[in-house]
Structure formats: structure tokens, C-alpha cells
């Protein structure tokens, strides 16, 4: 790589100015093509991993009747899905496409206890995930959404280090 850089610099110094500009344009085009190829390879790897994981989701759903996700995250205090949540949502959509007989209830749980606002927030979050799945081509009649707020905590001690796990989404087979 270092040798290539030195050689390209030497070549540039020997070329007329217009040829140097053309070389720069060509170099930029090659860099963009390399970046696109690398991005395609990364996307293929992500798709392979999603396909692998959706098989696990389906097995868990069939065995336990539910899949619990801490992978779906929202902007703080809102129902706006974060970009990091998209792979899991896409994986669920892929699983639902491959299994058209499966119907789900999306249950959203919040971390904080006792407030009516948290109940409404959890409903908006469940609705947002349902809308995202519909946006990925899943028939809305196969999906329902239920906000449960903090009514079903996994950990009831607020100071417990595991209390943040109360904030989750569950996909329940109907």
C-alpha cells in the first residue's frame, strides 16, 4: 500500500496538470467503487447473520410461545426506533414472511413504574414496532400491539442491577 502511494505520487509529478486532474478523478472513482464493493460484502454478511438468527427466533417462538428482545431500542422517552433496532425488526419480518401462518402480539414494557405516561409510551412503542413490520411487508392483520408499561417487571427491585432488563419488547405467538 505504501509503495502504491509512493508510485502514484511519482507518477503524478511526471504528468501534465490536466492529466493529474483526470488521474484524481479516476482515483476517486476507484475509491468509491471499492467502498461500494466493501459495503455490499458487509450487507451480505449481515443478511446471512439475520437469516441464521431468524431461524433461532422462530424456534424460540414455537418452543416457548414468545421471543423477548432487548435489542429493540427507542429514542429516550419516545417511540422513535433507533437505527440499531432495524436488524432485529428486519429479522422478525423475514421470519414472519417465511411463516405466513404465524400471528403475533407485540408487547412493550417500560422501565419506570407507576406512571400513566409510561403506559401510553409503551403502547406507542408497541405500535411503532407493529408499523415497522407492516412497512416491511407484513400483513397488519397478523399483528397486534399491546403496551404493558411497568405492569409485568422481570425484576422488581429498582436498585437491582438487572432492573434495566424490564424495558423490553416481547413477541407472543397468538
TrEMBL record:
<keyword id="KW-0998">Cell outer membrane</keyword>
<feature type="signal peptide">
    <location>
        <begin position="1"/>
        <end position="21"/>
    </location>
</feature>
<keyword id="KW-0732">Signal</keyword>
<dbReference type="Pfam" id="PF00691">
    <property type="entry name" value="OmpA"/>
</dbReference>
<protein>
    <submittedName>
        <fullName>OmpA family protein</fullName>
    </submittedName>
</protein>
<dbReference type="InterPro" id="IPR036737">
    <property type="entry name" value="OmpA-like_sf"/>
</dbReference>
<dbReference type="InterPro" id="IPR006664">
    <property type="entry name" value="OMP_bac"/>
</dbReference>
<dbReference type="GO" id="GO:0009279">
    <property type="term" value="C:cell outer membrane"/>
</dbReference>
<dbReference type="InterPro" id="IPR006665">
    <property type="entry name" value="OmpA-like"/>
</dbReference>
<dbReference type="InterPro" id="IPR050330">
    <property type="entry name" value="Bact_OuterMem_StrucFunc"/>
</dbReference>
<keyword id="KW-0472">Membrane</keyword>
<feature type="domain" description="OmpA-like">
    <location>
        <begin position="61"/>
        <end position="174"/>
    </location>
</feature>
Amino acid at each position: 500500500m505504501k509503495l502504491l502511494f509512493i508510485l502514484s505520487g511519482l507518477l503524478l509529478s511526471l504528468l501534465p496538470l490536466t492529466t493529474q486532474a483526470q488521474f484524481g478523478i479516476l482515483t476517486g472513482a476507484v475509491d468509491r467503487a471499492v467502498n461500494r464493493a466493501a459495503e455490499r460484502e458487509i450487507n451480505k454478511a449481515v443478511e446471512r447473520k439475520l437469516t441464521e438468527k431468524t431461524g433461532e427466533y422462530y424456534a424460540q417462538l414455537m418452543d416457548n410461545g414468545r421471543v423477548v428482545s432487548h435489542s429493540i431500542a427507542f429514542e429516550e422517552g419516545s417511540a422513535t426506533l433507533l437505527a440499531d433496532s432495524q436488524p432485529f425488526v428486519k429479522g422478525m419480518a423475514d421470519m414472519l414472511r417465511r411463516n405466513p401462518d404465524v400471528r403475533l402480539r407485540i408487547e412493550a414494557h417500560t422501565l419506570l413504574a407507576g406512571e400513566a405516561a409510561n403506559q401510553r409510551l409503551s403502547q406507542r412503542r408497541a405500535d411503532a414496532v407493529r408499523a415497522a413490520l407492516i412497512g416491511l411487508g407484513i400483513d397488519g392483520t397478523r399483528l397486534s400491539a399491546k403496551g404493558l408499561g411497568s405492569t409485568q417487571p422481570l425484576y422488581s427491585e429498582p436498585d437491582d442491577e438487572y432492573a434495566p432488563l424490564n424495558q423490553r419488547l416481547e413477541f407472543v405467538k397468538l
